[in-house]
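Lab notebook, bench 4. Continuing the backlog of folding jobs that were queued last week. Each job is logged with the same field layout so the records can be merged later without manual cleanup. Today's entry covers UvrABC system protein C, a 666-residue chain. Filled in by technician R.K.

JOB TYPE: sequence-to-structure
TARGET: UvrABC system protein C
LENGTH: 666
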Amino acid sequence: MTDPTTYRPTNVPTDPGVYKFRDPTGRVIYVGKAKNLRARLATYFHDLTQLHPRTRHMVTTANQVEWTVVGSEVEALQLEYTWIKKYDPHFNVKYRDDKTYPSLAISIGEPIPRAFFHRGPRKAGIRYFGPYSHAWAVRETLDLLIRIFPVRTCTKGVYNRHEKLGRPCLLGYIDKCSAPCVGRITETDHRRIVDDLCAFLAGRTSPITTKLETEMQAAAAELDFERAARIRDNLAAIIALTEQQAIVLPDGTDADVIAIDTDELEAAIQLFHIRAGRVKGQRGWVVERTDDHDGGSEQLMQDFLIRFYSDAADQEQTVRDSEEKAIKRRGVDNYVPIDTTATSVVPHDILVEIPPADIPHTEAALSQLRGGPVRIKTPKRGDKKTLMTTVHRNATEALKQHKLKRVGDLTARSAALQELQNSLFLPEAPLRIECTDISHIQGTDVVASLVVFEDGLPKKSDYRRYKITDAAGDGHSDDVASIAEVTRRRFLRHHLDSRTVPELDGSQFEDEKPQTSNKFAYSPQLFIVDGGAPQVAAAQQVLDELGITDVPVIGIAKRLEEIWVAGEKYPLILPRHSQALFLIQHIRDEAHRFAITFHRQQRSARMRRSELDNIKGLGAARRTELVKHFGSVKQLRQASVADITAVKGFGPQLAQNVYDALHPPE
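JOB STATUS: finished
OUTPUT FIELD FOLLOWS
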């Protein structure tokens, strides 16, 4: 481990630039950019305890830092991307797909291009369309398209075999392939069909439709009605294919819509490709959050935009170069490949949920990639805002599914429990873990949750929820006192023999399920509270008072996901990719979800209460009848006793009671 003070740089310029951290072997382990190099690099050499765990690990692994001054932040953005791609630094954020998406691929580098289903890494010489959300969507689309564009879909082995046999395969006989293997169509003509298919998949459907309409009319004029009918059917298939996707933006916008959902450790990014107002593709990534400096999600969004579109433009350029080389090798004269400029990769409009840290420079960098203006906008209302909500919901679900993959993996759960045992020096793996969380708004409607995990999985039948009493009598309660109350109410019943448990006031346990079964007859191997040292100390004090010594208590603080152990002065920092940390975080999040759901129920019930609740003889049905008759309590207050008596079910005495309650003497 290196002491960062031994290589702290001096005389750093204040210009914008890009910097690299290197380890003792000279390998680049981190690349970053800055508007002001001196100010940014200084943040890495503060007190190590104040740095983010990932940053602390990086600066103690490195032993030197170097920088390059550039003319503007646009240049810094581009140079940072170039260096990240070149060096693949270990400590830079990795953008990994949250799932593998199938695509429709066309091998444009081959003499006779082939259309096929593809999933996995992309290769040069192949043009990809998608990604699609489902594999069946790719196969269904391809099956429909080869009716209209009869391109080759067979493998190289099948193609060579039928070329030797001198007869086409079944697809050739049913007109779903133009059969270039037997010379039914020339290489140049087949390439033109491939070009039309690529243009159609790229969203340029109008020229194809116009071309088919012209050919149909020409065939009809020549009295070739059979050919005209086939073209008519192809036109109908194109219309059906384009109408399969619902229009999400009625104005026909070409845009990419990007949303982010984050927790303390990771972020999920979802991107929807919108072309001509329709969803043409969807992609997702899960990245690790660093938040080394100010910027947070805004900086993450900026880095993602530059990295994603730069990669996409590079891939598109590689495709164009490979196609041009293939054309030159075949010696085709006067051949013009279809337009695949970066304009199709970087749209004119990019709709983001969170604006990037520096919009002008980001727009400038993307405009250079596109070869035209790019606008980054955050929708505030209308259809685009509705679509953004949908994309964000997908990001939330993607992050949830990513975390559940770890929980659902038996090996990962076993590793997490074993790591918890080793890290916390427990006598055995914590097979039963309980966690509590407090939920309130400014100390009102305070409730708590207790969730139970056994073998790393939630046991929802053992979940409990609590209403927190107001010990101070001021209508408010603090988290530390609430944690102490929940801990006392949880452990007072289970640890002692049921015959020695003192009689308790049942009102204290409102909304708890009666613990008459043996579900809580034994202690958890680990008790987690949502909070830091004060909350852990409060829970431990309660256990000490009850004489419980076999239940270890820890807390998880949200800022840096620190683990606070009862009795310890400093927190435990688990590695960012620790299975144990992911399990603790998942348990904490589940406790938070359960608590906030109960809190919302309590708050809604309180808000539904009115001045009619405490009137003698007025039940729920009659309250509803009153509000339905008069429209509101305000209108009811203006009514006379006779007016109230006219309501169904109200006699003179009850009407008088209602009137008196709403008009108290001054």
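OBSERVATION: The chain has four domains: 4-90, 255-401, 409-606, 620-662.
SIGNED: R.K.
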